[in-house]
């Protein structure tokens, strides 16, 4: 199964402490191995803080959970993944994820009446976790073409796609196709191309931009290989 690619991992901060790394289950997967450490890249598999072999999926995902680590804003998780598919190991090395947070402050005044008027000011603090561009689904179309989509989330107002076939994108002027999608369709933001003839083993290299609450977030260096139907 030489065409298999390790799925993009989802990294989540747990409360009150810890973190979780997971991938979706795919047919044939029998093992998910995680090696990780914080704030320093992994150079080899003997150099890590944590290592675990997961031999059973949970609700359709292969999950590594660490409930001991205290995760601070700005911490970076460096990790390597191994996925065993039909007896063959596939690797995703040199992966990183930076934990972040945004802070918003709201203030208002309220008046309390109890025989006299007192003015009190309250400051309410809200914490919002850093937004991540969702993992895209890339699908071939019949009789030709392909589509790339992400799920809609409240706050998304634009989905931009830049793509190129069989050659990595070096910069945003180096592409075969580019499009800005301004509205979702049936709960997804979708780019469709019905003109290109996609062959088995062609590789789509693409960059995505999602405008969320007025700010642009990017997923660069993405790729997907088309497999025979």
Automatic annotation (TrEMBL):
InterPro entries for the chain: BGBP_N, BGBP_N_sf
- What Gene Ontology terms describe what this protein does at the molecular function level? carbohydrate binding
Q: A Pfam family name for this chain?
A: CBM39
Organism of origin: Drosophila ananassae
**Ranges for domain CBM39:** 4-104, 131-229
What protein name does the entry list?
Uncharacterized protein, isoform B
Superkingdom as given in the UniProt entry? Eukaryota
């Amino acid at each position: 199964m030489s065409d298999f690619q390790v799925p993009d991992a989802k990294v989540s901060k747990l409360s009150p402490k810890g973190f979780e790394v997971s991938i979706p289950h795919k047919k044939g997967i029998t093992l998910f191995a995680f090696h990780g450490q914080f704030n320093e890249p992994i150079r080899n598999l003997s150099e890590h803080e944590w290592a675990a072999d997961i031999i059973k999926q949970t609700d359709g995902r292969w999950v590594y959970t660490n409930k001991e680590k205290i995760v601070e804003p700005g911490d970076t998780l460096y990790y390597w993944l191994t996925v065993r598919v039909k007896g063959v190991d596939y690797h995703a090395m040199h992966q990183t994820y930076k934990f972040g947070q945004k802070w918003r402050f709201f203030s208002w005044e309220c008046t309390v009446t109890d025989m006299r008027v007192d003015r009190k000011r309250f400051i309410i603090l809200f914490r919002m976790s850093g937004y991540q561009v969702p993992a895209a689904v890339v699908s071939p179309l019949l009789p030709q073409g392909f589509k790339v989509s992400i799920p809609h989330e409240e706050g998304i107002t634009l989905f931009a796609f830049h793509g190129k076939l069989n050659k990595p994108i070096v910069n945003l002027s180096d592409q075969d196709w580019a499009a800005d999608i301004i509205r979702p369709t049936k709960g997804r933001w979708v780019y469709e191309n019905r003109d290109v003839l996609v062959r088995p083993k062609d590789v789509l290299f693409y960059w995505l931009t999602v405008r969320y609450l007025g700010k642009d977030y990017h997923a660069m260096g993405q790729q997907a290989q088309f497999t025979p139907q």
